[in-house]
Amino acid sequence: MGAWEGDALLVGGCEEIEQVELAGAAATTIFLALDTMSALSRSIPGNWHDCDSTAAGGVVNAVRWKTATFAGHQLRYAVTGSGPAVVLPKKDRGSYVPFERLADQYTMVQIEPLGFGRSDRPDPYPPVGIHEQILAVCDQEDIPEFAVWGFSQGGAMACATAQATPRARLMVCGGFNVLRGLSDAWLARMNRERRIPVGSRTFWNLFHSYNWHAELRQMAIPKLMYWGTLDAQRVSLKDQYILRGVGIDVAEFAGLDHGRSGFGDPASPATDVVADWLQRHGW
Predict the structure, then answer these.
(1) Cβ–Cβ under 8 Å, residues 234 and 254
(2) Which Pfam families does the record cross-reference, listed alphabetically (predicted)?
(3) Rounded (10°) angle between helices 153-164 and 130-140
(4) 256/243 Cα distance (integer angstroms)
């Protein structure tokens, strides 16, 4: 990766991205171009989706799928690796790329909240937050504090978790424009038509009730947000300025859409960028 200079990490050629000087902003802007992403992707092991992950030095980290009981319902989660904990809230089944690739550095925990993946799908849904479910798993695993990292709806879950508990020591949100969130009209239609599963409806109603500009400003922990330049969730230059003004580091991946900058794409540079960012913040 490139060298950190001042408040920016510039990697490779960045001609595709309009760079703006944000005077006085305290956070970091990261620009990645396609040639750099190709180099990063060459370091990704081919067995990222297997049941076991191979860490540096050939050590195999077993993936342990487990169950926790919360509010009388079963929560499914998986654990692998060792070291400081990184929690990934996830809405679907299977393993995410960072979960197994970073197991040589961290205790990686994937959690499928109630209503998602293989966890129970209660209806009516318990009147609780995502963070309470994450803390139940962390208590069961004797994890006192953790970094929380999510993408898309999982990114919104990461924000909600970091907002709700001081045990979240760092927060990473990818592929979701927190400042814009969901419109009142979209939320009203969701609640009226009820086509979206109850777990998602419950979460989005809670998430929408917060003023996220104020909440992000009050989070006194390191925060990183990222997206691809072709992602519909890309944050405008104006909103990037706002994010940096409230102490959030931002990364933008040139030429990538929502899927290619997500957890499921082994060629995404996000894993390496986030791992580097975590280490630079002492995690």
Answers:
(1) no
(2) Abhydrolase_1
(3) 80
(4) 21
Proportion of the chain in helix, strand, coil states, percent, rounded to 5: 30, 25, 45
Cis before residue 124, ω within 30 degrees of 0? yes
pLDDT on residue 268 = 86
* CATH numbers and ranges of domains, the chain: 4-280 (3.40.50.1820)
33 has pLDDT over 50:
no
- Alpha-carbon distances, residue 114 vs 68, 90, 94 (angstroms): 11, 11, 16
* DSSP code string of 237-279: HHHHHHHHHTTEEEEEETT--TGGGSTT-TT-THHHHHHHHHH
Per the CB < 8 A criterion, the answer to whether 112 and 50 are in contact is: no
CB 267 within 8 A of CB 241: no
Say how far apart CA 276 and CA 283 lie, in whole Å: 10
3-state SS assignment for residue 81:
strand
Nearest Cα neighbor of 157 from 216, 91, 223 is: 91
Q: Can you tell me whether residue 194 is helix, strand or coil? A: coil
> Position 172: which residue type?
V
Kindly report whether the global pTM for this prediction surpasses the value 0.70. yes
